[in-house]
Amino acid sequence: MNTHERLTALPEMTGSGPNLLNESIRFLQVVRRKLVTLIICTIVGGIIGVAWYSMATRKYESSSEIMVLKTDGNVLNENNQPNQRAIQDIMPTYQRVLTSDRVLEGAIKRLPTQHRIDLKGVAKSRWSAELKKNLSVSSTRLTNLLSVRYVSKNPKTAKFVVDAIVESYLEYMHEIHKGNSKESLVLLNREKSQNEIALREKETELLNLKRETGILLQGNDKNTHVIIEQTVKLNDALVEAQKKTLESRALLMSVEHALATGTDIQPYLQQAAGDISREFLMRELGVGANDAYTVAKREDELLTDQAELQSKLQTYGPNHHQIRQLEQRIKNTEAWLAGRAHSVSSTMKEVRERELGPKLLEMVKQRLYQASAHEAAIREDFEVIKKQALSLNGQMAQIEIVEMDLKRVRSYYDLVLEQMKKIDIGFDSGLKISVPTPAKFMLGAVAPKISTTVFLCTLLGGIFGLGMIYVTDVLDDRFRSPDELQSQLGLPMLAMIREMEPLHGVGLDGVVTFAKPDSLESESFRTLRSSITFSSSDTQRLVVTSTEPGDGKTTTLANLAVAFAQAKKKTLLIDADLRRPGMTQLLDLKGPLGLSQILRDTKPVAESCLENIFNLGIENLDVMPSGPRPSNPSELLASERFNDIIAWAESHYEQILVDAPPVLAVTDPAIIGRLVDGAVVVIRPDKNRRKLVLRAVESFRASGVQVIGIVANHIANNSGTEYGYGYGYGYGYGHDDKTDMVNEDEGDGDGNSGEDNIEAETRLAA
């Protein structure tokens, strides 16, 4: 598919009717046709850019960078530390200070006369404003850098101005800080004197209070008192005594319960008497430490014999004398251990019932008595010392308050001294600034730039050219080429008909195809006939209309009907323009008979049609004029009887052509179009406006009428447009009656000779 075919098919792919893409493509086609205008405007723009560059005053730039190293806040702020984020937050303030009138006036005073060339011709009161126009100050994000740039007519002047501005700025900031330092120093001296007096008073008050209350100073600088220390110790001892008394009472209750219920009291023995007493009692009972050693030794021997037995069983049989000896020895050891445990258990039970229980109970009671007596003695001493300690609480609280006041006054005093050390009237410690990048001479001009100037002027020239083309296109809203017609409407170009001189004949003598069959104009109508015949759609019933009156649709239709008749196709031409029947007037068929009479007649449609059809003397062509002008043409055409007329004609004729009013004038073409196979729209490119043509085609599509194609009419030979180019005009061939006769003789007699003639004409036109 070539470019033209793609553009023609584009509306079908993107939707019916015009859209933004179609408009853009159409405008590009307009630009392509007027490319010379665009090129001339672009070249003129480039020439203007070169000329302006050659005459423009050169501008030179110099720049410098200022870095803020540190900034201090309020000198009385305890958290006064350099803060990187705080510096960055106030960088816009420093930026505004650099462009302030105070700094600029100071810079102007520093400028030599020969470097005030940018201020020539400017009132002195406007010097700061003029300097600010050529000055730009910016701060780099997330840094402490300020960039100062100045543009001048002279490179040396640009450097001198930047240096003067930086010096004026530094001097201004130094003066501000110097004044602040003096004020801060006076304030700090006053604060220092007041704090020294308050500090001496608090220290004297604290010493007197400690002397009166007998305070002792410990190694950790904590104040304490002898009575308070004793109270604390007695309180700890009392808590411990209460704990022992509670444990002794709980143990007594447990022993009594064990003796009453007959449970084992051995677990309480060690808790009551300790390890030594328990060992002594166990030894008295014959189960002391030596006895335990003996039992443990016999258990080890038992384990050794059992291991040896298992080992020898793998070598000897069960009746071997060594095996029997080991088994007997193991049996004796097990019996001894079992008897020993039973003996100790019986002895312990007997001792517990007779002697151990009462002794343990007596021991626990004695322990409880001692714990209770110890607790009572400590409690008595604690109550005495407690009364003495309570009388000291007020004095101790007063001492703590005085100590806190003294600490606060001393901290504030130290802070004041620290701030006084930081202040130095001769050096700016509140705001430290350095100039890492001093200003330099820049010999290369920064403006204007030849590349940028020429590019912008060329671009503006191109834009101006596009604007001219667009305005011209809007003012001359017409189709300029067949491709534009097809791409905009999305319809095929069936034929293009050149401008014809009017014929003065009456009836068919006024029709070019009948009067001058061998002319070039007649050939264009035969081309239209061939395009319709070989259309992919059904074209037996067609309605022909136009956008506006005067587009030539009636003349086109009359010639097309004669062309079909000459091709041996039985054709019926119906003038359905009941408002302004141009076809009837052209063929001189005015009278009472015609389409309106059939629509209002009560006779059968077939009978009425035969009475209202005329033959003008040409074979295969019948004409149904419009008849008398009715008062309600739209209602008549929308009636069922008009549909019956089309159905009758379809059964008697091979080709039915209906002349309808202009589509934008009335609704009649849409009514007729729904009853036929399709519509053909005749367009006069030299007369019709693009928007009206688009609206006409859209109205057909909205009504569900299929548009077969378009016919470009009244194409002038010297129109200067692209119409007619390559479409066969002026190539010296036309229609010849002799050729028609030959084609008729070569027919096969079955009615195909006309179609063969049409196909031959189509190949010739192509």
What does this 3D model show about the protein?
There is one protein chain. The strands form three sheets. Strands 7-14-13-8-12-9-11-10 form an eight-stranded mixed β-sheet, sandwiched between helices. The protein has a four-stranded antiparallel β-sheet with strand order 2-3-1-6. Helices cover about 60% and strands about 10% of the residues. Mean pLDDT is about 75; it is low at about 1-20, about 75-80, about 215-220, about 425-430 and about 725-765. Among the domains are: about 225-390, no CATH class; about 490-765, P-loop containing nucleotide triphosphate hydrolases (Rossmann fold, 3-Layer(aba) Sandwich). It is an alpha/beta fold and about 775 residues long.
Number of strands: 14
Portion in strands: 5-15%
Q: Tell me, briefly, the overall form.
A: elongated
Structural class: alpha/beta
CATH topology of the domain at 489-765: Rossmann fold
Oligomer state of the chains in this structure: single chain
Helix content: 55-70%
Q: Output the strand order for the largest sheet.
A: 7-14-13-8-12-9-11-10
- Name of the CATH superfamily of the domain at 489-765: P-loop containing nucleotide triphosphate hydrolases
- The tally of helices reads 27
What average pLDDT do the residues reach?
Answer: 77
Q: How is the main sheet built?
A: 8 strands, mixed
CATH top level of the domain at 489-765 is Alpha Beta
Secondary-structure arrangement, i.e. CATH architecture of the domain at 489-765:
3-Layer(aba) Sandwich
Instruction: State the separation between the terminal residues, measured CA to CA.
Output: 18 Å
Give the uncertain stretches in residue-range form: 1-18, 73-82, 217-221, 424-429, 723-766
Q: Rounded to an integer, what's the Rg over CA atoms?
A: 63 Å
